[in-house]
Design brief:
The complex is a heterodimer of chains A (about 325) and B (about 325). With about 325 residues, chain A is an alpha+beta fold. Chain A contains 9 helices and 14 strands. Chain A has a 5-stranded antiparallel β-sheet with strand order 9-8-7-6-10, covered by helices on one side. A 4-stranded antiparallel β-sheet of chain A has the order 12-13-11-14. In chain A, a hairpin with a 4-residue loop joins β8 and β9. In chain A, α2 crosses α3, α5 runs antiparallel to α6 and α8 packs across α9. The longest helix of chain A has 21 residues. The relative contact order of chain A is 0.07. Chain B is α+β, with helices and mostly antiparallel strands. In chain B, about 40% of the residues lie in helices and about 20% in strands. Chain B is built from 11 helices and 13 strands. In chain B, the strands form 3 sheets. A 5-stranded antiparallel β-sheet of chain B has the order 8-7-6-5-9. In chain B, a hairpin with an 8-residue loop joins β5 and β6. Chain B is elongated, with a radius of gyration of 27 Å. Classes of the chains: A alpha+beta (about 325), B alpha+beta (about 325). Chains A and B meet through α1, α5, α6, β5 and α7 of A and α1, α3, α4, α5 and α6 of B. Chain B: Pfam families: WCX, WYL.
C-alpha cells in the first residue's frame, strides 16, 4: 500500500546504515536490487548508503582514519555490476537492539492484532512480545491496545481468499436496507475498533467497502474470484467517494474535528466561527450523515443545506419520540 | 578556507563506530578532535562551543534510537566534566544472539508496525522494521492483504508517553462528565491503553496512593510535566489497566430495545457478549456511560435504552440536544 513516506532524517539514515551493515556482512555478495527489495527502499538509497559505509570507519591508533581502520568494498563489482561485497569490516558485528519506543510500538500493534485469524496461536504472540522486550535497549513504554473483538466473518474471508472463491453475505447499508452481496475480498482494513473489508462487489461491479459488524450470514461460494488485490487500484481513503456526493456545511468544536476522521477532506476549508470551526464534509446521501451527527451531540452542527439539517433533526426527533411514547 | 561539509548521518555513523570500538571510552575532546564530521570543525586550543553543543544534540539523537551511549566518570576525577568518557558497550548495543524471528513472525511484526502508520508511534515502528530487516529474514506474504490502523489523535498522548519514559509526574486539567468545571490532577503516568477505541491513561495518584484511569479526550488542558520522579513498577501496568477497564465493562450492563432488521439490531447484536432476547430486548455491556450514550443516540429511532436510568436519560438528553441544534 502506498503510504506517504516522509523524507529521511539524519537519524533515520543512521538507523538504516546500522541495519544495512550486518545484513551485508551475512551475505558474501548481494545485488543492489536485492538489498533494495529486502529493505523496501529505492535502489539509489542502497547505493548512497554503501558509498558512505565504504569510506567510513574509526579514527584508529593514529587518529587519522588510515586504510586499515575503514570499511572497504569490492569497488569494481559495485561500480560495474551493481553488486555489493564487503571486503573489510570495522566496529560492527551485529544488528542493533530496538529502542524502548520501537519495541513498545510493535508490542502494542501485535496485541491489537491478536484476534486476527493469522494469530490463532496465542502463545506465538506472547513469545514474540518477550523477544521484543529482551531485544530492546530499555524497558518498552507501557502502551497497549485492546484486542479487537472479531467474529467468524474474518476467518471466512481469509478462507475464501486462500481458496480463491467469492464470498457472499447479507449487508445492511446505512439506509437500513439489507441485501445479499457477493464479493471478491481484496483487503481487510481497520481504524481503531472498527473493521472493514474492501472487495470487488459483483452486485455493483465496482470496489466497495463493508463494515464487518454490518455483515451477517456470511458464506463461501464455489464461484471463482475474478479480481485480486494486485489488479484493483484501491483508493487510499476508506470511504467510497463520488462526484455526485453532496457537500454539507458543518460547525464543529475544534477539539472534535479528529472525531470526524476521513469525513473531513484534508483540503476542506476551515474557517473559525465564534468558538467553532466551519468546514465541509462530503456524503453520498443523508443516511450516514444523520447517524454521524446524532452520535456527536453538542459538538457538531449541520448548517447547510437545509435538507441535511432537516434529515438530522428528523432522525433525532424520531429517536426522542420513542421515549415520549413509552412514558 | 571553510572545511568541507560532512553530512549529518556520516558524523553520527562515525560517532557510533568510534564509541563501539573503544573499551575505556573517549573523552569529549578526543571525540571532537578525531571523529569524522567533528574533526573538520575542531579548532585546536580554541573555542569549540558550537561543536560541543552539536555533540550534545548528537548524543540525544543517538540515544533516542536505542543506542546505549554511556557516560563514564573516572572515580579519581569525579566532578570534572572534561574528563567524562563516552562509549557504547557492545553487549547492550547488539541484539542478543538468541533472538531470532521466523518468516511468519516477521510478517506479523510488519503488520504490527503498519498499525501505527500515522501519529507519534509511526517513526518508531518504521525504524523497528528497518532493524528487523537487518536480520535478513525473508517475509512471508500474508494470505489476505491487511491495512490495520490505530489512530493517535489525542494531543495528550505524546506528552504523556514522554513523561512515562522519563518517569515523572504530570499535571493536567480533567473534566469529569456531567461537571461544568475541570479539576487539576497530579498523577504518575503508568500506562497508555486503547479500550473500545478510546485512549486511556492508567495512573497512580501519589496523594491517595490509588490507581485511576482517565480518558485522554477529557484532559482539557495541555499536559504539564513536573520534575518529580516516581519509581512505581510498571511491568504489568498495561495488563492491569486493560483488566480494570474490562472489569468496568463487565459490571455495566445496559438493557436496550432494538428495532428488528435495523442497523442497530445488526451492529449492537454483534457486540462481544451481547444477549438478544426473543422480545427484541438486548443486553449489552459498556465501559463509559457517556460514550455509549453517544453511540446509542446515533442510532436514532432504531434503539431505546431501557436501563440503567442514567443511560436512558443521557440518551434522551443527547437526542433532544441534536433536535434543538438543528431546529
Amino acid at each position: 500500500m502506498a503510504n506517504k513516506i516522509p523524507p529521511l532524517r539524519a537519524q533515520d539514515k543512521l538507523v538504516f546504515l546500522l541495519a544495512l551493515v550486518p545484513y551485508l556482512m551475512d551475505r558474501d555478495r548481494v545485488s543492489v536490487a536485492e538489498a533494495a527489495k529486502h529493505f523496501g527502499v529505492p535502489e539509489q538509497q542502497i547505493r548512497e548508503a554503501v558509498r558512505l559505509i565504504a569510506v567510513s570507519g574509526i579514527p584508529g591508533e593514529t587518529a587519522t582514519y588510515q586504510a586499515g581502520d575503514l570499511f572497504d568494498i569490492a569497488w569494481d563489482d559495485f561500480e560495474d555490476n551493481d553488486q555489493i561485497v564487503l571486503t573489510q569490516l570495522v566496529a560492527i558485528d551485529d544488528s542493533p537492539r530496538f529502542s524502548a519506543r520501537e519495541a513498545s510500538a510493535l508490542i502494542a500493534g501485535l496485541q491489537y492484532l491478536s484476534s486476527l485469524p493469522e494469530h490463532a496461536d496465542r502463545e506465538a504472540i506472547a513469545t514474540l512480545t518477550s523477544k521484543l522486550s529482551r531485544g530492546a535497549s530499555a524497558a518498552p513504554t507501557a502502551v497497549a491496545v485492546e484486542s479487537s473483538a472479531l467474529d467468524e466473518t474474518l476467518a471466512l474471508i481469509r478462507e475464501s481468499v486462500a481458496a480463491g472463491t467469492q464470498i457472499e453475505f447479507d449487508y445492511r447499508n446505512s439506509r437500513g436496507e439489507s441485501e445479499r452481496r457477493r464479493i471478491d475480498p481484496l483487503r481487510v482494513e481497520s481504524v481503531d475498533a472498527d473493521w472493514y473489508v474492501r472487495g470487488w462487489c459483483h452486485s455493483r461491479e465496482d470496489v466497495r467497502t463493508f463494515r464487518l459488524d454490518r455483515i451477517s450470514q456470511p458464506a463461501m461460494t464455489t464461484e471463482a474470484i475474478t479480481h485480486t488485490a494486485g489488479d484493483v487500484n484501491l483508493p487510499e481513503t476508506l470511504f467510497d467517494t463520488s462526484d455526485e456526493d453532496i457537500e454539507v456545511g458543518i460547525e464543529v468544536v475544534p477539539s472534535a474535528i479528529g472525531l470526524l476522521g476521513d469525513y473531513v477532506a484534508d483540503d476542506a476549508p476551515r474557517v473559525a466561527a465564534r468558538d467553532r470551526v466551519r468546514t465541509t464534509v462530503r456524503v453520498p446521501h443523508f443516511h450516514g450523515l444523520k447517524r454521524l451527527i446524532s452520535g456527536l451531540p453538542g459538538v457538531v452542527t449541520v448548517v447547510s443545506p437545509p435538507e441535511a439539517r432537516e434529515a438530522v433533526a428528523r432522525w433525532a426527533q424520531a429517536g426522542a419520540e420513542q421515549y415520549a411514547e413509552e412514558q | 578556507m571553510p572545511a568541507p561539509k560532512v553530512p549529518n548521518e556520516e558524523r553520527l555513523f562515525s560517532l557510533v563506530l568510534a564509541l563501539l570500538s573503544t573499551e575505556n571510552g573517549l573523552t569529549k575532546s578526543e571525540i571532537l578532535s578525531t571523529v569524522q564530521g567533528y574533526r573538520q570543525r575542531f579548532v585546536h586550543s580554541g573555542d569549540n562551543a558550537n561543536l560541543e553543543r552539536q555533540f550534545e544534540r548528537d548524543k540525544d539523537d543517538i540515544r533516542e534510537l536505542g543506542v546505549p551511549l554511556e557516560t563514564i566518570e573516572p572515580p579519581e576525577q569525579a566532578g570534572n566534566n572534561q574528563n567524562l568518557r563516552y562509549r557504547i558497550p557492545r553487549v547492550d548495543y547488539e541484539l542478543p544472539d538468541d533472538i531470532a524471528f521466523s518468516a511468519e513472525e516477521s510478517t506479523l511484526l510488519g503488520l504490527a508496525a503498519m498499525v501505527w502508520r500515522e501519529g507519534s508511534l509511526s517513526e518508531g515502528s518504521r525504524r523497528a522494521i528497518v532493524k528487523l530487516r537487518s536480520l535478513g529474514i525473508e517475509t512471508a506474504e500474508p494470505v489476505l492483504s491487511y491495512a490495520p490502523q490505530v489512530r493517535v489523535r489525542d494531543e495528550a498522548f505524546e506528552p504523556l508517553r514522554e513523561a512515562m519514559d522519563r518517569r515523572v509526574l504530570v499535571n493536567f486539567e480533567y473534566l469529569k462528565p456531567g461537571e461544568q468545571t475541570s479539576t487539576t490532577r497530579l498523577v504518575a503516568p503508568l500506562a497508555l491503553v486503547q479500550h473500545q477505541g478510546r485512549w486511556h491513561l492508567y495512573a497512580k495518584d501519589p496523594a491517595t496512593d490509588t490507581f485511576k484511569t482517565f480518558l485522554l479526550r477529557r484532559m482539557v488542558s495541555g499536559i504539564q510535566r513536573t520534575k518529580k520522579t516516581f519509581d512505581y513498577p510498571t511491568d504489568n501496568a498495561t495488563a492491569q489497566a486493560l483488566a480494570g477497564l474490562e472489569e468496568v465493562w463487565q459490571s455495566n450492563v445496559a438493557l436496550l430495545r432494538v428495532e428488528p432488521g435495523t442497523d442497530a439490531a445488526t451492529r449492537l447484536g454483534k457486540r462481544r457478549g451481547a444477549v438478544m432476547h426473543p422480545d427484541c430486548r438486548l443486553e449489552v455491556n459498556f465501559t463509559d456511560l457517556n460514550i455509549f450514550a453517544d453511540e446509542l443516540a446515533s442510532f436514532g429511532p432504531e434503539v431505546v435504552a431501557i436501563s440503567p436510568p442514567a443511560l436512558r436519560s443521557a440518551v434522551i438528553e443527547r437526542l433532544t440536544r441534536t433536535v434543538a441544534d438543528h431546529g
